[in-house]
Specification:
- The protein is α+β, with helices and mostly antiparallel strands.
- The protein folds into two domains: 206 residues, no CATH class; 102 residues, no CATH class.
- It contains seven helices and 17 strands.
- The N and C termini lie far apart (44 Å).
Length: 323
């Protein structure tokens, strides 16, 4: 098992006269709103309460019914009004499909079945920093090498801030020197087209021997600019259009486009078009963050996240104002 931290910086744009302004707001405005709404609570406690509202006893599910997350009441959260941070764990994972579960040493008989209306979940660590006197915040989310609910958590945050009159804008954070080195060294070498998770099987071509197929098409021997894919919307649309030309059966409602690269150090990564920033390097957590029984060491993960946050504050040249 491998664990990673994905780090994002985020800003908010305010809605005025039905449109979002181009300027980002100082988070002091958000803190004031929360103080008015919850005068008896601290602002970070109020923020946490609003984010987890209604999904502490049920699941928040994405549009194609393939991912779900919940802030279960049994989970504990750390709230610091002094440092303007909240952190804790949520549960999330795959849904919408039937999974047969086997012991890994016996493939003859499943031990049980996970139904399409159930969630195969694991726990994820998260941390949010929303300073009172600054216009840039930080979101840190832990993921597994083969499992993430990052997109769904960001969607939840987007909809929450939208509900109080702001547009949530986030960018994956990588120190500038490492980002520049990465973008100069890496090109996309392969594109995969696969079925979206959770779609109705009746929408797929009806076959027998290959009925459980996932990848439907591979486009290889290409070299696309990773930098342009990350920064140029027109370039991304052009790539998507050319995929449709090469693969006429492509339908954005049914298929995902996945990009693959190998960098100069031989490291592999991939990302869908919807989460293209995941191509950028993540923080790989060392063995101290994994317990002897192959479960996450949450205390060590939080310690690493705290260290990352302090480095990001320095990179952003943030200095807390004396109250």
């Amino acid at each position: 098992m491998k664990l990673f931290l994905d780090v994002f910086i985020f800003q908010l744009q305010k809605k005025e006269k039905g449109k979002y302004t181009d300027e980002v707001v100082n988070f002091s405005e958000v803190h004031k709103q929360l103080n008015i709404k919850y005068p008896e609570k601290g602002t970070m406690m109020a923020l946490l309460q609003d984010i987890i509202n209604s999904i502490d006893t049920t699941f928040y599910i994405n549009g194609d019914n393939s991912k779900a997350l919940s802030f279960c009441k049994s989970n504990t959260f750390a709230i610091s009004e002094n440092t303007n941070c909240i952190s804790g764990r949520f549960v999330g994972g795959n849904t919408g499909l039937q999974f047969d579960v086997y012991n890994n040493d016996d493939a003859t008989q499943p031990t049980h079945i996970i139904k399409p209306d159930e969630v195969a979940s694991v726990q994820f660590f998260f941390k949010i920093w929303l300073p009172k006197d600054f216009s840039t915040g930080v979101l840190i989310v832990q993921r597994y090498s083969n499992n993430t609910c990052l997109g769904l958590l960001k969607e939840r945050l987007y909809k929450y801030f939208q509900s109080i009159g702001y547009k949530f804008i986030s960018h994956k954070f990588v120190p500038e020197d490492r980002r520049r080195e990465f973008l100069e060294a890496c090109n996309i070498t392969r594109i995969g087209i696969s079925w979206k998770k959770g779609i109705d099987n009746t929408l797929k071509p009806q076959v027998d021997l290959l009925r459980n197929n996932n990848i439907t098409h591979i486009i290889s021997n290409i070299s696309l600019s990773t930098k342009k894919l990350l920064t140029d919307n027109i370039y991304r649309r052009t790539v998507s259009d050319e995929v449709s030309t090469l693969y006429p059966e492509f339908d954005s409602r049914l298929h995902d486009i996945k990009f693959y690269y190998i960098d100069t150090k031989g490291q592999k990564a991939s990302s869908t078009l919807e989460e293209i920033e995941c191509l950028l390097p993540s923080i790989s957590l060392d063995e101290s963050c994994i317990n002897f029984n192959n479960t996450p060491n949450w205390e060590a993960i939080e310690t690493t996240a705290n260290s990352c946050l302090e480095l990001i504050k320095a990179d952003l040249k943030y200095t807390a104002k004396v109250q």
